[in-house]
Design a protein that fits this description.
By secondary structure, this protein is of the alpha/beta class. The protein has three domains: 23-156; 184-354, P-loop containing nucleotide triphosphate hydrolases (Rossmann fold, 3-Layer(aba) Sandwich); 364-406. Helix content is 61%, strand content 6%. The chain has 18 helices and five strands. The protein has helices spanning 23-39, 43-60, 66-89, 97-121, 129-155, 158-182, 190-195, 208-220, 236-245, 247-253, 268-279, 289-299, 312-317, 319-331, 366-377, 379-384, 386-395, 400-406, and strands at 225-229, 257-261, 304-309, 335-341, 353-354. Strands 2-3-4-1-5 form a five-stranded parallel β-sheet, with helices on both faces. Helix 1 packs parallel to helix 3 (66-89), helix 5 packs across helix 17 (386-395) and helix 8 (208-220) packs across helix 9 (236-245). The two termini are 15 Å apart. Bound molecules: adenosine-5'-triphosphate and magnesium ion (MG). Residues 236-237, 309-310, 340 line the site of magnesium ion.
Length: 407
């Protein structure tokens, strides 16, 4: 992977000092980064660049530790130059939460580095030589980490792509909900549901305990209500699908487990319509769908598992209607449900067991995140670029969707 921090040496100007650091060029480059931040409305880039200029000024006046600190100043200048390029070249960069979060973190870390360098430059004695060397090393390490993060991502344009794909996924969900809402209710067909029903991906790491906990709850309660809650892309649907595939769950529910992609069923009417289609209930002209659903459960003795995926869509659009239908479903003794939902609480009047210790799904562990990355991208790559990949995975907060996109 090309390293975009290794640039062609710039011609020396008159205020360049023997160390090769060009103070005037650095300040100009940083002012430019601040202007780009300002023009793009990215206040954390503007802030970071302004702090960086102050750092340069502090280093310029330093008597002791000057050479080491110049190398920090040089790295900071290069780093902000690269971030400026990313902002200039990228489309929709502001919508890339991960990128914005990193720039924000950088601004705050530069503030800390500045404070530390001020302290060092104000020392009157040599008494602190050892601790100063450690502080400088730490600052250097921190900036190097950021260089790894921005360099690797920028050179493969991941920053822009991830943001666009993540945004694209959101747009798609919204669009699907919108289409469904403006659709004639009778147009939600079995095939519509089937087309967007996902299957469990074979690449699945680090969720053994959560899956076991869910399976245990489903098979050891005659009627089980399981809520899988958490942030977008954390892996809720994947966990639900793997729970559903567990042999014990298959034994209990047989073929009677039904997946409803609720992002296309944004209100009670459509949810009912989806259920009717999924369960294969025949409703004749003029007949009541509610009545047919009730009859279905009245005459069926088999345990039924309903997987209500992306339930935040109907729940946020039509809470009253959905509460009513959920209450009804829960009242049928043979029905069990799994909901996956972005949020902190299970929906409606049902007593949900929420999966996980914190009532929401945690991110992957660093080890599982690495496994996901190497399974998708190939082990060789991880070996070669192990450290920078680790830094990226950490930066992605070990969220499976983000890791999958990057890999
Ligand atoms: N444990 C895992 N190991 C590997 N890949 C995973 C894991 N969990 C999720 N993924 C992948 O991450 C992506 C997002 O996962 P998933 O759709 O399950 O998230 P979600 O929480 O349901 O998201 P949303 O809130 O958008 O519905 C999918 O491509 C999935 O295959
Ligand atoms: Mg999901």
């Amino acid at each position: 992977m090309p390293n975009i921090f290794s640039r062609q040496p710039k011609p020396k100007q008159k205020d360049a000092i023997p160390s090769g650091f060009d103070w005037s060029h650095a300040k100009t480059a940083l002012s430019l980064a601040a202007s780009v931040g300002k023009a793009a409305g990215i206040s954390h880039l503007e802030g970071a660049a302004e702090i960086a200029i102050k750092i340069i000024e502090i280093v310029e006046t330093m008597k002791r530790n000057k050479e080491e600190c110049i190398s920090i100043a040089r790295d900071i200048t290069d780093l902000l130059d690269v971030i400026k390029d990313i902002m200039e070249r990228g489309r929709n960069v502001k919508q890339n939460e991960i990128l914005m979060k990193n720039v924000q973190k950088l601004e705050s870390d530069l503030g800390i580095i500045k404070t530390k360098l001020v302290k060092i430059s104000n020392r009157k004695t040599k008494f602190h030589v050892t601790s100063d060397a450690e502080i400088i090393k730490e600052c250097k390490g921190k900036i190097r980490d950021y260089m790894e993060i921005f360099n690797t991502k920028a050179s493969v344009n991941i920053w822009q792509n991830t943001g666009e794909i993540l945004k694209g996924q959101e747009d798609l969900k919204e669009a699907m909900a919108h289409i469904a809402k403006t659709h004639d209710q009778s147009n939600i067909t079995y095939d519509d549901l089937e087309r967007i029903t996902p299957t469990a991906s074979p690449v699945f790491f680090g969720r053994e305990e959560l899956v076991a906990e869910g399976v245990d709850h489903l098979v050891n309660n005659s009627q089980a209500f399981l809520a899988i809650l958490g942030a977008g892309g954390i892996g809720k649907t994947s966990i639900a699908l793997h729970i559903n595939n567990a042999p014990q769950v298959k034994t209990k529910y047989g073929k009677a487990s039904y997946f409803l992609p609720c992002e296309v069923l944004p209100d009670a009417k459509l949810l009912l319509q989806g259920l009717i289609q999924r369960l294969g209930i025949e409703v004749g002209q003029g007949e009541s769908q509610h009545k047919k659903l009730e009859d279905y459960f009245r005459f069926n003795t088999q345990s039924i598992l309903l997987i209500l995926d992306n339930f935040e869509t109907p729940w946020n659009h039509d809470p009253l209607g959905i509460e009513n239908i959920l209450g009804k479903l829960a009242s049928f003794v043979q029905s069990s449900m799994i909901v996956t939902m972005r949020g902190l609480n299970g929906p409606g009047p049902v007593e949900w067991k929420t999966l996980g210790l914190e009532d929401s799904i945690p991110p992957l562990t660093p080890e599982s995140a690495s496994e996901v990355f190497s399974a998708i991208s190939g082990k060789q790559e991880l070996k070669k670029t192990g450290d920078s990949i680790q830094a990226i995975l950490k930066n992605l907060d070990y969220v499976p969707l983000a890791i999958t996109l990057i890999a």
